[in-house]
Structures are given as C-alpha cells and as structure tokens.
Design goal:
Elements (H helix, E strand, L loop, with lengths): L6 E5 L8 H12 L4 E5 L18 E4 L8 H14 L1 H18 L3 H15 L7 E5 L3 H13 L3 E5 L2 H4 L3 H10 L3 E3 L2 H10 L6 E3 L22 E6 L8 H13 L4 E6 L5 H10 L6 E5 L3 H10 L2 E3 L15 H8 L4 E4 L4 H4 L7 E3 L4 H13 L1 H18 L2 H14 L3
Parallel strand pairs: 1-2, 1-4, 2-3, 4-5, 5-6, 6-7, 8-9, 8-11, 9-10, 11-12, 12-13
Helix pairs in contact: 1-16, 2-3, 2-4, 3-4, 3-5, 4-5, 9-14, 12-15
Length: about 400
C-alpha cells in the first residue's frame, strides 16, 4: 500500500503525442510511489501513442467534452453533487457566474459541469488532492472541482496557457491554489508578479529521460549534404517561416543540404505554400507527426537542429521546448532564438547559437556557421550534453517535484 494519498491529475487530453513531458511526469511520480488517477477533458486525437505511456498504471476517466451534446451526461452527476453539498455547489455556481461576467465565454459553464462530473466520479477513490496541467481550462475545472469535492488543488503552468490567459482569472487561480509549479524561471517570474504576497511559485524543468538519448560523437563533423532537422507543431510561435526563409537563402548560396520537418498543426497549409514559394520542395521532407522512436532516428541522422521560436500575436510563446533538450542530449548542435526561456538552456557560443526572433539573415548565418565551423561544433556538442545532464535529468527533477508535493502534505 502506498504511503502517499491518491492524486487526481486533470489534463486537457490524454495521451497526447506533443505532451510526453506530462506522461513522463506521471510515470515517474508513480514509480516514486504516488497513486494517480487521470481525468482527461477529451479523448486522444492521435491514432498512436509513445511507448512510455504503456508503463503508466493510472486509471483514466474521460470527462464529457462538449456543452450541448453532453448535457444529459452532465445532468445526473451534477445533481448528485448538488444534493450532497448544496452550499459548496452554490459557491461554485457563484464563482462561475463571476467568471462568465468577466469573460462572456460559455466555457465557464462547461468547466463547472465537468467539475461536477469529476467530483461525482471522485467519490470513493480516496483522492485528497487535484493537480491540473496547464493554467487555462484544466485548472478552471480543478478550481471548481476543488470547491465541489472539498479537496485542495494545485496546477502546473506551461506556455500558451500562461501568456494568453486573462490575468485576473490567472491571479485568482494562483491565489486559490495550494501551490503552483511552472517549467521555467522565465515563467516563474511572470507568475510570481500575479501571486499574492507570501505565495511562492515553484520552477521545475520538465527534463528528459537521459537513457533514451545517447550522444556517440558522430555529429562532431558535419558532412554534405547537410541534414537540418526541425520538430515542431505548425503554429505561429514556432517561427517556421523564419527558418524556411533562412534555408532558401542558404540554397541560393549553393549550400548542399536537406531539410526534415516533423510535425503538423493549424498552419500546415501556410507552411506547405511557403515551401513551394521558396522553391524548397526538392530539399524538404515533411513527415507529419511521428512516434518518439521514429523522431530519435531522425536525430541520429541530423547535423543540425533548428527552431525559430517567437512571440505570437496572441502572446503565446514557448518555454524550453523539449525537442531542443533532446537534440542537445543526442549530440546534435542547436540554433534557437533569444525568446522566452530558451537562454536558460542555450548559452550563446557555449551550448548552441542564439539569434533574435524573426531575423532570417541572422538565422541563416548561424545555421551555416554551426554546420561549417568544426571548432565551434567540437566545443558546443559536449558542453550541450553536459548542460542537459546537469539541469534537465527528469529523474532528478521528478524527485524535486515530489518533494514539493510532500511539503504540502500530499
């Protein structure tokens, strides 16, 4: 029998290909002795999953995911919660009304109903704490479920969920949460400004499983045709157009390379059109989404990894993308941008190269330098691996996270 009390994890979707950091966290917390029950706000959209997910033992409960079509599913569980605890349901209802008045979004109604469904399903599970990943909708559900189920909640903030959230609502969540975790110091500083006096926001990097990423030294010398790799969702904050324009300039200079772009996303049509416009079709391979094991094969063959992170018009931005950490662990040198928390991972000319966001010329120059400067590669590649080993070992970081949990009596 575990010495820790069960924790309910509230996730936007489970499992998700782009959120291996969450499944790895759950897997390692389970191995540390924490019993976990997953509540997912929707079913998986991908047809495949990473192998590590199969190691997770947690039971998964899927919440009804739409407001109108799921109304019959919501009705009875919420009625049971109302009858059991009318005062608590009244408090949650009043909070929902205040939030709806603030944002005029029906999502507040859905989140209350999902919380009622969750609170009803939580009966007899032994769950005494709820933890949400992402500060937007999962934490809204956790906040309401905390009131309805009379248990504390906490949450982990990441990137888009922090910078595109209504600040008043985010501050309210921080104030009501038992504790708050985020994945970079940059994020922590932002959230700390919204926190009430005396409440500490904790920064814990996601990290990676170093056993999966071996650096065997074959990347020290880059050979033509160079293989340049990007793994990213096709969304504005990833800065893919900057990379593509820089690659087009390299091609005009006669640099012999092939470009592998792994991922999908809302801007896929736009990205494909830009590839055609820049005449990059002959040297570009678009793979779509791949399982983690397949991505590792592409790392093995790459001479350079590049990501063009920027701040999107909505305020959305990256924290420390795990693919950069993975690339550095694999001995593949990286070029990134100075945006957000990337400098917490990449020190310019020591563990990689950094350029200003949306600067095609600087991006192209940095890529060419990293491909052709043998002394730079020989210095950067081992230093990057050492940086990951020191600061991004997920087994070390999960112990730190576990200590935070235990310090709050979980």
């Amino acid at each position: 029998m575990s010495k820790f009390r069960p924790v309910g994890f509230i996730l936007k979707g489970y499992p998700r290909i782009s959120e291996t950091f969450i499944s790895n966290e759950i897997r390692l917390l389970e191995q540390s002795g924490f019993p976990i029950h997953i509540f997912s706000m929707r079913k998986p959209r991908e047809s495949f999953r990473h192998a590590s997910v199969s190691e997770i033992r947690a039971k998964v409960t899927y919440l009804p995911s739409t407001l109108l079509t799921s109304l019959p599913e919501f009705l009875i569980p919420n009625l049971r919660v109302l009858l059991r605890s009318p005062k608590r349901y009244g408090r949650a209802l009043r909070l929902m009304c205040r939030r709806f008045a603030r944002t005029r979004k029906s999502a507040s109604i859905k989140h209350l109903l999902q919380a009622g469904y969750l609170a009803d399903k939580m009966q007899d599970t032994g769950i005494t704490h709820l933890h949400a990943h992402f500060a937007h909708s999962p934490t809204s559900v956790a906040l309401f479920a905390s009131i309805l189920g009379n248990v504390p909640f906490s949450f982990t903030g990441h990137a888009k969920d922090i910078y595109t959230s209504n600040q008043a609502q985010l501050a309210e969540k921080i104030a009501r949460a038992k504790f708050v975790v985020t994945c970079t110091r940059y994020n922590r500083d932002y959230l700390q400004k919204l926190a009430p006096a005396g409440k500490q926001v904790h920064a814990v990097y996601h990290g990676i499983d170093l056993k999966l990423f071996s650096s065997n030294g074959h990347h020290i010398t880059a050979r033509k045709p160079y293989t340049i790799l990007t793994v990213a969702r096709f969304v504005e904050k990833k800065g893919l157009p900057t990379i593509l324009r820089a690659l087009a300039d390299l091609r005009r200079q006669g640099i012999d390379f092939r470009y592998v772009l792994i991922g999908t996303g809302d801007e896929e049509k736009k990205i494909r059109a830009l590839i055609r416009e820049l005449n990059l079709d002959p040297v570009t391979e678009l793979t779509g989404s791949l399982a983690h094991e397949q991505v590792l094969e592409h790392f093995h063959n790459a001479d350079l990894f590049v990501l063009g992170c920027r701040v999107a018009a909505t305020g959305d931005r990256d924290g420390v993308p795990n693919v950069l950490v993975e690339s550095m662990a694999m001995g593949v040198p990286v070029v990134g941008t100075t945006i957000s928390a990337l400098p917490e991972l990449i020190t310019h000319e020591e563990t990689g190269l950094l350029v200003p966001p949306e600067d095609d010329e600087a991006m192209g120059a940095a890529m060419l330098r990293m491909l052709t400067d043998a002394e730079l590669r020989a210095r950067v590649i081992p230093a990057a691996r050492k940086k990951v080993e020191q600061d991004f070992d997920n087994r070390v970081l999960i112990r730190k996270l576990g200590e935070i949990y235990k310090s709050f009596g979980i």
